[in-house]
């Protein structure tokens, strides 16, 4: 056997002899005896949680505080008249197939032919002028300013007559 090989066997045997030597568990035995004398520790009881009364949100059917108020006085709820009615023979424009609530004004555009409102909705941004229609209630644009678009819709009063309902689409800032 070569001296290098003999040296490596001696080192290996000395390392293995250190793993199994001495049964010195005195510190562990002392700790276990101390634990047996004092018994198990005291376990604190679980905390008692107070139950709170259930809260029912009752304002779900009310107007959102972030939308403008609508006047509900009785004078504004007038009866429809016989001379106001939708033009059933008129060819519907593309934007009349969508709810007016989904449109938002994002800007204006002016050139030599007039002033236009830029409305986002119905899958894109649309350029509209005074006299154009949008929404499902025969909404006709009556005025365009830098801050809003004024629309007049023709809606049923529920008693067989029609009335005009003004709507405003405000300019959406930072769009």
What do you see in this structure?
InterPro entries: PilP. This is Pilus assembly protein PilP. It comes from Pseudomonas fluorescens. With 175 residues, this protein is α+β, with helices and mostly antiparallel strands. The chain has a domain of 77 residues: SH3 type barrels (Roll). It has a four-stranded antiparallel beta sheet, with no helix packed on it. Strands 1-2-3 form a three-stranded antiparallel beta sheet, with no helix packed on it. Strand 4 and strand 5 form a beta hairpin. The radius of gyration is 42 Å and the shape is elongated. The chain starts with a helix and ends in a 5-residue tail after the last strand. 10% of the residues are buried. About 3% of the residues have low confidence.
Task: Characterize this entry briefly.
This protein is α+β, with helices and mostly antiparallel strands and 175 residues long.
Strand and helix map with partners:
Layout: H1 3-19, H2 26-38, E1 104-111, E2 114-121, E3 124-128, E4 133-134, E5 139-144, E6 148-156, E7 162-170
Antiparallel strand pairs: 1-2, 2-3, 4-5, 5-6, 6-7
């Amino acid at each position: 056997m070569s001296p290098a090989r003999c040296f490596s066997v001696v080192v290996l045997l000395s390392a293995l002899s250190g793993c199994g030597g001495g049964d010195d568990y005195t510190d562990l035995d002392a700790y276990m005896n101390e634990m047996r004398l004092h018994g198990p520790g005291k376990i604190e009881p679980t905390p008692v949680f107070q139950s709170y009364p259930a809260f029912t949100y009752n304002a779900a059917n009310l107007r959102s505080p972030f939308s403008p108020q609508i006047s509900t006085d009785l004078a504004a709820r007038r009866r429809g008249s016989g001379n106001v009615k939708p033009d059933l023979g008129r060819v519907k424009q593309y934007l009349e197939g969508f709810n007016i609530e989904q449109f938002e004004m994002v800007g204006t555009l002016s050139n030599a032919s007039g002033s236009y409102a830029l409305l986002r909705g119905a899958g894109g941004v649309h350029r509209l002028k005074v006299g154009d229609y949008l929404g499902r209630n025969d909404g006709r644009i009556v005025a365009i300013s830098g801050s809003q678009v004024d629309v007049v819709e023709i809606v049923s009063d529920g008693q067989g007559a029609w009335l005009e309902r003004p709507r405003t689409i405000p300019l959406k800032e930072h769009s």
